[in-house]
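As promised in the previous annual report, we have extended the structural survey to additional targets. Below is the entry for Glycerol-3-phosphate dehydrogenase [NAD(+)].
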Amino acid sequence: MGKESVCIVGSGNWGSAISKIAGRNILNNPHQFEKRLPMWVFEETLDEKMGGGKLTDVINEKHENVKYLPGIALPENVVAVPDVLEAVKGATYLIFVLPHQFLGKTIEQLKGHIQPGTKGLTLIKGVDVKNDKIQIYADLIEKELGISCSSLSGANIANEVAQEKFSETTIGYRNEEEGKVWKSILDSEKFKVSLIEDVAGVSLCGALKNIVAVAAGFIDGLEWGDNAKAAIMRIGLVEMKNFGLEFFDNVKSATFLEESAGVADLMTSCMGGRNRKVAEAFARTGKSFDELEKELLGGQKLQGAATAKEINSFLKSKKRVEAYPLFKAVYEIAYEGRDVESIVTGVSKSKL
Ligand SMILES: NC(=O)c1ccc[n+]([C@@H]2O[C@H](COP(=O)([O-])OP(=O)(O)OC[C@H]3O[C@@H](n4cnc5c(N)ncnc54)[C@H](O)[C@@H]3O)[C@@H](O)[C@H]2O)c1
Ligand SMILES: O=P(O)(O)OC[C@H](O)CO
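The corresponding structure token record, generated without further manual editing, is:
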């Protein structure tokens, strides 16, 4: 059997930031990984103002993702690969880090091409909803690709992590041994990984906090101040935890209340994230989320509004929309023309 090797499936803002840590950590790792770290890049031609050329060529020549993580030097062993099947060939550890909208199609391409025994780790913040069925992406990846899959989420604004400012993150592992290997690939002095046995809790925190971050952006757009923002975070955390406990087995309250994946990611996203930023612009301008995403994010993708829609359709199918008034308000404001100022109507009932 050959050496173990890692591949990153995705190369946006977060995928590129993570490639910097993983690229370094695999060079001197007790597990003796292959030194080359392939990163699948959804190929595109850059605008002239970014210098033109294919994104993969530019990453491999400059060792910088000039579109999604400009100004950050990537390790030279990180190699951009435009063909996803070529990127994953021979890899035994796969890191999935795509906007959730694109995972389904990517999995279809990968089916039948992943070797048995491969381990996965998803960094994707979102959930898969089909009518009255909901599943976390770690479960989807496990079922569709036949591999074991853990989940990483935390208070991790990618640009700050890439600049090596201190942050924490949480890995929910399938089994402890796998968790330890993932930690050896991703932990660093400035990016502290905690391991817990709660894959669903970690995944749900990452998905649901994006809905709350949209609500926080509405509060900023309304200029209602810090007390109102704190109220939205409290209520949002209650709904996140209640949702996890109601619809998933073995989810732990402590993941929501004590981990970086839970309360800390909620706070950073409500203060500094892209969902917050675009929702603030929505409240100020009345333009749609799609329009604002294009205007404000330079090709990066929003997750919060889409997740609010998906969660709303799931809750409708379960006749439980009214039990989650903040999630309901975010969906109706974003998609159904409800007045932004009604964001707090009926929400303060939510209790821990
Ligand atoms: N950016 C952050 O600060 C951050 C931090 C933690 C977690 N996350 C999560 O990581 C995941 C990935 O987000 P990101 O910020 O790295 O991405 P991004 O929003 O920065 O970039 C969009 C990416 O989507 C790719 N893309 C565009 N069209 C595509 C298609 N048709 N098929 C496949 N890929 C396509 C682009 O090439 C680009 O890599 C998301 O779930 C996000 O919530 C992001
Ligand atoms: O910028 P956002 O809103 O997509 O959030 C980024 C990360 O999830 C923060 O941990």
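The chain is about 50% helix and 15% strand. The chain has two domains: 6-197, 207-344. These points will be discussed at the next consortium meeting with the crystallography subgroup.
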